[in-house]
């Protein structure tokens, strides 16, 4: 049964969410040429970071700070437009914290811990009792209140959200061993040979990059780490292993706080850090009952609500009929005598007559030319697809012109189009 999240818990009101959103998204390749990974579009109209920020807001947290770094303009502009409704007179705050040499000798954030250290004065000025430290580049729905409650009940120094993942995928995560009380007894960051859960050699217990601290304790730890010349100033590599060894680290199973509607059968968390995983997670939304329910009014995903007219479908002739089947089509789109199947079409896109789009993720403001045929593609924002261009039918030709994955997903950007 879904959890009732109607009223914010008291601990969330005493917490500040600190979001680390400086990720390069290198495995997304050209999709992150002009934007950080948290700013990448997802689900037709949202950005990846909207899920983390919405989780904090829906959990009842009213103080949020976002540390940005890599190619942050698109991300900052999105947050200024879509997350500017916090009011200081209600004891709310929303701070955007680019790396800006705010302390002597500092430049870029050297690591995730340094991204907190360089902004300690801002954290201290709000004086929250707890810090919920979050990654801004994952897609999931989570109520942080149960995690805060566990942190307090178990008197933890750090509480780490954990997720069971296949061992073959665990080398991308920090991996934990826990005892019967969820106390972490061992932690290794991105191991080449990940240890498995006792009794289940196919599964490892991974850190989700979500941590809860008492604020004063966190401040002490990042200051200690900043003074260590041998540290890389990273939570996963330095602070967490130190606390596992010298403090009390507790794991919080994601299943206890994952938000699910009646339509969602299992816990949902996605990294979407590769072209294929990004394509797959978006395409899954077109299913009759998708694994991620974006229509859950009890846990809305907030974003910048661009003012657009409704999507429009025109022409009704044989071979030239504007239709979309098993697809999500955002506002401002015009499907003019084209056929769209099992695809996402972002805000303000145009798909012209006789075009065919299937199993594809079309980002906002894309123009698909007359007679083009696109299958299994991700088209970057604003790309102008030439008339009669065919992608997804000739693997060798696709690989010459675009970025093609092993499983045949093609990423198309305007720069690639210009080289044709």
UniProtKB/TrEMBL annotation:
InterPro entries: ADP-Glc_PPase (IPR011831), ADP_Glu_pyroP_CS (IPR005836), GlgC_bac (IPR023049), GlmU/GlgC-like_hexapep (IPR056818), NTP_transferase_dom (IPR005835), Nucleotide-diphossugar_trans (IPR029044), Trimer_LpxA-like_sf (IPR011004). Alpha-D-glucose 1-phosphate binds at residues 109, 174, 189-190, 207. Its EC number is 2.7.7.27. It catalyses: alpha-D-glucose 1-phosphate + ATP + H(+) = ADP-alpha-D-glucose + diphosphate. Homotetramer. Involved in the biosynthesis of ADP-glucose, a building block required for the elongation reactions to produce glycogen. Catalyzes the reaction between ATP and alpha-D-glucose 1-phosphate (G1P) to produce pyrophosphate and ADP-Glc. This is Glucose-1-phosphate adenylyltransferase. It comes from Rhodoplanes roseus. The gene is glgC.
């Amino acid at each position: 049964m879904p959890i009732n999240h109607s009223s914010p818990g008291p601990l969330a009101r005493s917490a500040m969410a600190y979001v680390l959103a400086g990720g390069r998204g290198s495995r997304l390749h050209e999709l992150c040429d002009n934007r950080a990974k948290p700013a990448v579009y997802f689900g037709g109209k949202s950005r990846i970071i909207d899920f983390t920020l919405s989780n904090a807001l829906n959990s009842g947290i009213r103080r949020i700070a976002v540390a940005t770094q890599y190619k942050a303009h698109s991300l900052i502009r999105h947050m200024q437009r879509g997350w500017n409704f916090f009011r200081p007179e209600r004891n709310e705050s929303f701070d955007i914290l680019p790396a800006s040499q705010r302390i002597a000798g500092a430049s870029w954030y050297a690591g995730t811990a340094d991204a907190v250290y360089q902004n300690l004065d801002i954290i201290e000025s709000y004086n929250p009792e707890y810090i919920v430290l979050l990654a801004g580049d994952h897609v999931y729905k989570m109520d942080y209140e149960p995690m805060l409650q566990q942190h307090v009940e178990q008197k933890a120094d750090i509480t780490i959200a954990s997720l069971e993942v296949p061992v073959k995928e665990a080398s991308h995560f920090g991996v934990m061993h826990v005892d019967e009380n969820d106390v972490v007894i061992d932690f290794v960051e991105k191991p080449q040979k990940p240890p498995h859960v006792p009794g289940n050699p196919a599964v490892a217990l991974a850190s989700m990059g979500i941590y809860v601290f008492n604020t004063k304790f966190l401040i002490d730890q990042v200051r200690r780490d900043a003074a260590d010349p041998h540290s890389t100033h990273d939570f996963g590599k330095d602070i967490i292993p130190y606390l596992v060894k010298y403090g009390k680290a507790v794991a919080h199973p994601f299943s206890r706080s994952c938000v699910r509607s009646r339509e969602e059968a299992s816990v949902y968390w996605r990294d979407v850090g590769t072209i294929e995983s990004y394509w797959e997670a978006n395409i899954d939304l077109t299913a009759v009952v998708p694994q991620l329910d974006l229509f859950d009014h009890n846990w809305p995903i907030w974003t910048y609500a661009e003012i657009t007219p409704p999507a429009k479908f025109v022409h009704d002739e044989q071979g030239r009929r504007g239709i979309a089947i098993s697809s999500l089509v955002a506002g401002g789109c015009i499907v003019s005598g084209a056929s769209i199947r099992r695809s996402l079409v972002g805000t303000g896109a145009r798909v012209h007559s006789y075009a065919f789009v299937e199993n594809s993720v079309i980002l906002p403001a894309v123009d698909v030319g007359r007679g083009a045929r696109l299958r299994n593609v991700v088209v970057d924002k604003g790309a102008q697809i030439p008339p009669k261009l065919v992608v997804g039918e000739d693997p060798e030709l696709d690989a010459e012109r675009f970025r093609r994955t092993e499983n045949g997903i093609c990423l198309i950007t305007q720069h690639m189009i210009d080289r044709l």
